[in-house]
């Protein structure tokens, strides 16, 4: 679990310096793996706004919604 926290902290720093879709995706995935579904869902939605043709954020959002029910 500690590695995910370190990864998220690094990705937050990277996104503060230069927003990019790759860091956003990996942060969403790390949040998901840590069961921080709200944060993961928010990042997936941000990514979907950037990449409207990318199916990954939609699939992740659907998985989160299923877990929350």
TrEMBL record:
It comes from Gigaspora rosea. InterPro entries: TPR-like_helical_dom_sf (IPR011990). This is Uncharacterized protein.
């Amino acid at each position: 679990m500690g590695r995910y926290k370190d990864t998220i902290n690094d990705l937050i720093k990277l996104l503060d310096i230069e927003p990019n879709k790759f860091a956003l995706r990996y942060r969403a995935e790390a949040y998901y793996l840590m069961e921080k579904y709200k944060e993961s869902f928010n990042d997936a939605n941000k990514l979907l706004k950037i990449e409207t043709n990318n199916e990954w954020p939609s699939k992740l959002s659907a998985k989160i919604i299923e877990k929350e029910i």
